[in-house]
Design goal:
- The chain folds into two domains: 3-140; 232-444, no CATH class.
- It contains three helices and 32 strands.
- It has a ten-stranded parallel sheet with strand order 15-11-8-5-30-28-26-24-22-16. It has a seven-stranded mixed sheet with strand order 21-18-17-23-25-27-29, with no helix packed on it.
- It has helices at 3-71, 228-231, 235-244, and strands at residues 86-91, 97-110, 113-125, 132-140, 149-151, 155-157, 162-163, 167-169, 173-175, 178-179, 183-185, 189-192, 202-205, 207-208, 219-220, 247-249, 256-261, 267-272, 275-277, 287-291, 294-300, 308-311, 315-321, 324-329, 350-358, 364-369, 373-375, 382-391, 396-397, 416-425, 432-435, 438-444.
- With 445 residues, the chain is α/β, with parallel strands linked by helices.
- The N and C termini lie far apart (122 Å).
Length: 445
Amino acid sequence: MTTKNRQQNRLHGGYLMVLVLVFSSVLLTIATSFISFIILQSKVITQRVQFEQAGQIAEAGLNYYKWYLAHYPDDTTNGTGVAGPYVNVYNDPEGAAIGEYSLTIASSTYCGEISSIDVISEGHTYANPAVSRTVQAHYAQPSVAEYSYILNSDVWAGEDRVITGPYHSNGGIRMDGTNSSVVTSGQSTWTCNSSFGCSPSGTKDGVFTTTTNPNTSLFSFPSAPINFAGITVDLALMRDRAKSDGIYIGPSDKSGYHLIFKANGKVEVRKVNYKEKEPKGYAWGYYMHILNGTSLVGEYTPPSDCPLIYVEDQVWLEGVVNGKVTLAVADHETSGDDDEDEDGGSGPSIILNDNITYANATSGLLAMGEYDVLVGLVVPDDMEVNGIFIAQNGHFGRNYYGDVPQGWLSYNKRNSLTINGTIVSNGRVGTQWVCNSDPAYCSGF
């Protein structure tokens, strides 16, 4: 081999060495990157698993305290009697401790009673305590505010009625109006008679209609009845709470009281010294509930921690509600017995005397009458009431005024009634009366 050939071989060998080194470096870089990617993905997957486990542990904390409240509904200290947070160990199905959840519990009270409980649960695993999840829940008793109507009697909703929330009756329902939510009846069938517009009387489905207005796909029957005994409240307890922490107004020794809510948060209380009486103007009694002479009792501000007003007499109600207020109208002497008031009912009633509106979006009214909640005769042509209205033993509605004196004849028929809230009525509701002389309506809205 010549010297020239040997030099060329050395040169080729150097090239090969360079190529080997280059390709080795590239392969090493790729391998290192791939291994790093695999390790990173493994860490990500592990963290995701730990993240999910932390969430499951936090959820377990909420489930635990939901169970605890079912057994001890007034305990917000996890049985310790001291302030939290409260840390509990979480075990896997095999019994091994794999993490912890920490509970922070707060409650809202209303007149000394717990009204709702908020629970925040933070969970983490022992494998990676730095990865935690937090969930929270609000626990409260079911509210009638979820419904537009809850009734304990048969009912007929006329074709001009527009109902936007869930509508339930333990009795039968003739729904000729327009509904945008479920309409449920506790009956599979019921007897619809002439008072519900059925002539002749006949057996009807739990919910039925004679118009094309309602969304019949939202009709449901029979559904589980709503227990009215569970809705009604302990009037004696409310009376005691009002005396100790709220506003208590005793019997008037006259016709009752006129309560006027003010936009400044106060309520003006006036004693009703007289009211008009007209035997022919009231189908189910003798009174038209028209005020005729009042005198000022005082102005009161409902306490913020117990905005409860308890009145032991009939009440005429109106005004602008500012804040959350509960009004209970009852007579502890007649509560739960068969003593009748002057209108034939057991216990005093609430008369909606004018518009009831809210000062702001955070305001709310719960008005409960031991017997009826009625719309009065002398009311606006276009009336608006806001709130939850409960007729505990009687009914919600407006009476039929068939023969009112000339001075009040123009109030017999009103144009519209807008109710923003919930109606709870033990008896049949009705604010419109249909007569043969006027097929549209002859009294009411």
